Amino acid sequence: MPPTPFCCVFYFFGVAFLDGVATAAEQLAGRAVGARYRPAFDRTIKLTTFWGLIFAALVSLAFLAAGDWVIALTAPSDAVARLADTYLIYVVVLPVVGIIAFQMDGVYIGSTWSRQMRNLMVASLIIYFAAWAVLQPLYGNDGLWISLLLFQGARSIAFRFMLPKLAAATFR
């Protein structure tokens, strides 16, 4: 088993926690938009940002504190464990970089901003593929993980950047 899929298991485990923030944001934003009540929408953004950052930090700290131990316990071989350890830092950082993207997934879905979400995802995917095309040949698996970090970061920034404009149009 190569180390990258092994590390992805950690990432997907963390995503399960972060997706809870997206689910809450989706329901709360949808309720606020349906009621056409901007104060509830703004509170949704504040609360899900706060709790999302808390959960992301806790997931990252758990990966940092127990990642080596879990890898050693579950890796099919010492070679895979050693390689997976070298990529653990990316798994530790990803929840913090990606939490706003997950939160905004929920906000955009709950607010029925599907077209805008699609467009921002396409732009983020272009950034990912460009980074991957440059970084993976130069840095191997590190380039792949850095590209994933850039993808999640681009999603976080793009979604958050468009939020004020979309909210203003929705609640005018």
TrEMBL record:
Keyword terms: Membrane, Transmembrane, Transmembrane helix
UniProt entry tagged with the keyword Membrane: yes
Coiled-coil residue spans: none
GO cellular component, one term: membrane
GO MF annotation, one: antiporter activity
InterPro entries listed in its UniProt record: MATE_fam
Membrane-spanning intervals of the chain: 12-29, 50-75, 87-108, 120-139
Keyword Manganese applies: no
Protein name (database record): Fragment of cation efflux pump, DNA-damage-inducible protein putative (Part 2)
